[in-house]
Amino acid sequence: MRALAGRCAVAVTLPLLLATTSACSGSSGAPAAESCVAPGVTADQVKIGFVYPDTGTDAGAFSAARGGVEARVGLANEQGGINGREVSYEWRDDQMSTETNRRVVGELVEDVSIAGLVATSFTMSGSAAYLAERGVPVTGAGTEPVWSQYENMFVFANMSGSVDTWGRYLRNNGGTRALIVIPENVASTAIYADRISLGLRAAGVVPAGIVQFAEASQSPQRVAEAFAATDADVLVSIIDPPVLAGILNALRNAGATLRATLSVPGYNANLLGRYGPALAGVSIMSYVTPLELGGPAAEQYAAAIAHYAPQVGNPEQEFTIRSYIETDMLLRAVAAAGECPDRESVIRALDSMRDYDAGGLIQPTDISGRRSQPQNCLAFVRVNDAGNSFDVVDRRLCGSVLPAQ
């Protein structure tokens, strides 16, 4: 991170260091001055907010996301907090709804008075303009165009554009025609499916169609019939992995030939105990370094989950890792903003992160310069044939960023 004018900066390459240096605070770990009061900041506390879909359509994939926040906040306090301030958080459920998102985010900003927001949500279009107007720093998933439109919103992996990386992966695995299945009536996933279609076509894989599926009212056989009718040989899934498991069983029962199956969610080892055999052979694309590769960052993350969020179970869960990293981004920025951080200085700190790597959990990333540049290098893991673990297929497959449509 580059130094901020008139403020103390914390190097983001130092794993999980949150206390500023004595040159900035006067004494290491000393409490902040009583006169320092800003939204979410008092003399002895920093309060942040977290929003995600705890309920709603396909919310199951997000079920362990809150554990990532709890683990990262717990680790911060274990290390002395931020300038002697204890870190706390409050969360809200946006129910995968833009209307609910706007309402509950407003509660966090107006009633709770948070310093910043972590948003592991696919419906931030509901509150993005409001957050920009209030100048609230936001870190999050980056799945919607709004993440590239507002200067207060930051992502470590921009998913709001289109790349041909996923198409290259499927092409490398023999795929030629792909059917995409998405949850019914979720606008953000429909937009994302269009981006995937562009990436498939650019890599030479024909998008054969998009099927909306509602588990509560439809049979998986409907997807099997569409797969056969479109002569597809690849399935791309943007639905809950347990729902995908039922669809794959229907495809197998119908005698379908699947050259590859690619799921956007699904890097979740807890699912394998129940659904592993049905998900065997499914590939999952990841915006983070797979934990199977090991290393100090992966070990520290796993230990933090075990200590502060044991309810998560296996730490190999995509949305847990993502929310952990998104929380790390915000806390590092609060630390870098100096003794008396306000929302504006936290945004400046985020905008100064040129080589952010979450302590080693992701490839070094220029956060400030990538808001309009989708991530084109991804990792791919595959559920092994026994259905009980993930194999790393590509630790870093890079493609091309496609022009905006």
TrEMBL record:
CDD domains: PBP1_ABC_ligand_binding-like. InterPro entries: Leu-bd, Peripla_BP_I. Gene3D superfamilies: 3.40.50.2300. Residues 1-25 form the signal peptide. Keywords: Signal. The keyword Signal applies. It holds the Pfam family Peripla_BP_6. Residues 45-387 form the Leucine-binding protein domain. Belongs to the leucine-binding protein family. This is ABC-type branched-chain amino acid transport system, substrate-binding protein.
